[in-house]
Amino acid sequence: MSEKNEVPTLIPPLEGLARLRQFTAARIGLGRAGIGLPTAAHLRFAADHARAKDAVYSSLDTKPLAGGLKRLGLKVGFVRSAARDRDEYLRRPDLGRRLDEEASLANLPPSDVVLVVADGLSAAAVDANLLPLADVLVPQLRARGIEIETAVFVEQGRVAAGDPIGQALKARLVILLIGERPGLSSADSMGCYMTFAPKPGTPDSRRNCISNIRLGGLLPRLAADQIAWLAAEALRREVSGTSLKADPTRAIEGKSG
């Protein structure tokens, strides 16, 4: 019978699995100590779990973000969803899709394309990636002759919150950037959803999505290239979603380990 204070035997990962770890953030080839994880792997898991939880409850630091968008020549507005606080936002996804009854966009000009920024499930992702993406995306859109003059921040917002905003501002296309649900290997992932002819009740099948925009995933400058191409095609063809496919030649190079 083993002694109570016996130290578990540390079993290293198989050599082949250990080599794979340089290509992915997935938890593979961790080895084991007795029937559990080695201490270092356990501590990394706990830290990543805490980071993901923090991301869900993070809030947008809108002042520097709005300042960066204004420097790009965008007029910036602020609204809230119908969710009163973070707990209600997490319990009631439907409220995050609607704007607060007192939300007003009257001070913003109509724009062919409107940029909507929502905290989503990781405001930390938007804080980290919005400006690196916008700094490249906005000039690219304008270089293609696409009018983009307006940006709107949505507190406690989900993807569909962009629909009433786009309709109110007479936008032909909404480009919505939002913090994605954090995982244990990426708490800072931002997604982009594009909707042609947005209006309340638009089904998700009419949206195009580009996800995992971050330094450890799809680099912002490469995401901007994909978004600008899709935006131009959506406006030209007057469709989005399942009727508009991404250009496959623009995808693979955008990955970064």
UniProtKB/TrEMBL annotation:
Enzyme class: lyase
Pathway assignment: Amine and polyamine degradation; ethanolamine degradation
Principal location class: other
Enzyme Commission number(s) from the entry: 4.3.1.7
Cofactor(s) needed by this chain: adenosylcob(III)alamin
Keyword Lyase: yes
InterPro entries reported in the protein's UniProt record: EutC, EutC_C, EutC_N
Amino-acid positions noted as binding adenosylcob(III)alamin in the UniProt annotation, renumbered to this chain: 159, 180, 209
Keywords, alphabetical: Bacterial microcompartment, Cobalamin, Cobalt, Lyase
Molecular function, one GO term: ethanolamine ammonia-lyase activity
Record's GO cellular component terms: ethanolamine ammonia-lyase complex; ethanolamine degradation polyhedral organelle
Catalyses which reaction(s): ethanolamine = acetaldehyde + NH4(+)
Domain of life, per lineage: Bacteria
Pfam families tied to this protein: EutC
Role played: Catalyzes the deamination of various vicinal amino-alcohols to oxo compounds. Allows this organism to utilize ethanolamine as the sole source of nitrogen and carbon in the presence of external vitamin B12.
Protein's name according to its UniProt entry: Ethanolamine ammonia-lyase small subunit
Organism field: Arboricoccus pini
Gene: eutC
